[in-house]
Write the structure tokens for this entry.
Amino acid sequence: MLENFRHCISIEVRFGDLDAMGHVNNAKYLTYLETARIRYVHEVCAPHTNWSELGMILAKVVIEYKAPLLYDDQVELYTRVSRIGNKSFEIEHVVMRTADDQSEVAALGTTTLVSYDYQQKRTIPVPDSWRERILAYEPALSTLTNE
């Protein structure tokens, strides 16, 4: 399942992430995905970009919860671009938890990002430099889907 995921970050489960039942609140997964997404974009797409000029907006998030995350769990978040269109691209995430030397999928997520010109208030094509960097980083991404 993880063979095509090159990008991985560790997430620390903080006490404040827990709900009354003692596991990570479902809304915190959005923050975890955001952290991984921003790191991916910074490291792969645009390492020298000014964040105020980044030019992308989050259009869609889907999360499928598989197993609870608990306070002492080791959490790794795997990220990859799975589709590049003309003006948007999709990022897939796998949230893995390890506890007592056992690993399992805690959640699967997909986010859709749209390239956007904030000054003109309109969508724009995915920058060629991003497309080139993503394709170079993601060798498994062989077919492009255009919108």
